[in-house]
Amino acid sequence: MTSQPISRDWLAVGDGHELYVAQYGNVNGIPLLYLHGGPGAGCSTDELVLFDLSVYRVIFMDQRGAGLSRPRGELKHNNLGKLLTDIEQVRQWLGLSKWTLAGGSFGATLALLYAAKYPSRVIEQVLWGAFIPSEDSIRWLYGQQGAARLFPAEQLEFSVTATTDEQLSQFFSCYRAGLDNQCASVRQDFTRRWLSWEMALAYPGCKQDRKNVNLSQVLASIELYYVSNNYFAAFEQLCVSVVNIQAKTVILQGELDWVCPSGVLFSFLQDHRNQHIRLMEIKGGYHALADIKMTRAVVSAIREMAQTIVKGSIN
């Protein structure tokens, strides 16, 4: 199978938003929705290497405002509830009774919430680098007492203003002003700072590679928008709904994931037990799929998911 798309479409989902949906692989294969992270990253064809395209019908969906979805970077009518409703609209539009899910970071968060909200629609799912959007996670990422202590030089570059953990809203407001500045060079500088910090945690030592400046600014803007709004109560929803997940769920978490520390996820799953969720820590693994250990683990888990389904787990 080649990486040429089976189809490319824009689906109108209301509020003036159109989602870019591309399909790859075997049109008669196991349907799999890939949920990208960020939020705001968009899908990349580079990520097709995760899937056996002779077995899977892979569906790439750029979330609202992200990737090739239109209007690009739009924040209006862009929130957690809309993203979950959009996923269900795509399933209905494709005429699928159920499908598998795969995704990392915030994409894993969305997958968990969707599988809890629509338990009869998800066969199985493979997730990695799962983000638990709690206040503790936000302080870990953007405050002074978490990842900042592990990466002091990178955090100094990231911090455009001195801010305590109690003043994070001011910090986010400062970045919003920078990302929305009328001067292109100022916008680009704030974008670079934001994404460089993210990359420092996701794959330490790896150089930032953002080929498309406009898409990079969209990613930084949407990420900032979601964290500034406390991810629209995603953590509270997870706490209530994760017990409703009925699909076999494998979560791969890197031992050295400094974006979404494995200890945070482990504690969450200890407090909100679900027999269908299995957590696997990848020794020496980081957050980013640029890390070969994580990529190999994800590819293996997705392959195993196909094997169990082919053996008769679709009813």
What do these coordinates show?
By secondary structure, this protein is an alpha/beta fold. Helices cover 42% and strands 17% of the residues. The protein contains 11 helices and 8 strands. It has an 8-stranded mixed β-sheet, sandwiched between helices. Strand 7 (248-254), helix 10 and strand 8 (277-282) form a beta-alpha-beta unit. The longest helix has 22 residues, at 292-313. The model has no long low-confidence stretch (mean pLDDT 93).
**Strand share of the residues?**
15-25%
Radius of gyration: 19 Å
Order of helices and strands: EEEEHEHEHHHHHHHEHEH
Could you list the spans in which at least 5 consecutive residues all have pLDDT below 50? none
CATH class of the largest domain: Alpha Beta
Q: What is the tally of beta strands?
A: 8
Distance between the termini: 27 Å
Helix content: 40-55%
- Order of strands across the widest beta sheet? 1-2-4-3-5-6-7-8
How many independent structural domains? 2
How would you describe the oligomerization state of the chains in this entry?
A: single chain
- Look at the structure and name the CATH superfamily of the largest domain: Alpha/Beta hydrolase fold, catalytic domain
**What is the average of the pLDDT values?**
93
What shape does the CA trace take? globular
Pfam families: Abhydrolase_1
Subcellular location: Cytoplasm
EC number: 3.4.11.5
GO molecular function, one term: aminopeptidase activity
Brief digest:
By secondary structure, the protein is an alpha/beta fold.
What labels would you give this structure?
single chain; 315 residues; Rossmann fold; 8 strands
